[in-house]
Amino acid sequence: MSPSAGGACDGRYHPPRRQNTSANLLRALVVAAGAGQLALAAASLAIPRVLGWREETARLRPLTHRVFWTYAGYILGFHVTFGLVSVLAPDLLLDGSPLATGVAAFIAVYWGARLVIQFAWFRGVEVPAGLRYRLAEAALVALFVALTLIYGAAAWFGGGAAGR
Q: What is the pLDDT of residue 19?
């Protein structure tokens, strides 16, 4: 180790340690995925207004109305939590521990299921017309695919890519 690196000089050349490029890439992808989920959560706050949820849910029985809004809150909470964990603690999510692998796998399955739901459940349903809505759907699908792949990679390669 060189004296400038804080180690004792033993007179031999020690090349600088190479950064694990795949670990750095996966870490950056997890942070970006977290930011994407936080952006999705922020944008989701407009969905009730855009889709007229207040008027639509007013026709429901009171219990169904409350259950609907409770579920919507849980989903928003998941997105915020996934985003914050990814942005604030990507190294913990990639440390290869059973907990990290399980959490990353859960997030991957969550977004994979959401992707399947997009094509199996929402196809043929009346959606607002216009280019803006078609672009929004394309962006959502791209985000769901990216999140599924990133967290799948985090679960599969997390410990190895992190070089731990």
A: 60
The reply to whether 14 falls in a domain is no
Give the closest residue to 114 by CA, choosing from 143, 85, 136, 88: 143
- Number of structural domains found in the chain: 1
Specify whether the CB–CB gap between 94 and 152 falls below 8 A.
no
Domain-located, residue 3: no
Q: First CA to last CA across the chain, in angstroms?
A: 21
Look up residue 70 and give its two tokens: 């409770």
The tens digit of pLDDT for each residue in 74-119 reads 999 999 999 999 999 999 999 999 999 999 999 999 999 999 998 8
Long-range contacts made by residues 113-120, C-beta under 8 angstroms, separation at least 24?
114/144, 115/141, 115/144, 115/145, 115/148, 118/144
Within a 10 A sphere around the Cβ of 2, how many other Cβ atoms? Answer: 14
Secondary structure class of 115 (helix, strand, coil): helix
> What residue numbers bound the domain in which 61 lies?
21-159
Question: What is the C-alpha to C-alpha distance for residues 97 and 110, in angstroms, rounded to an integer?
Answer: 20
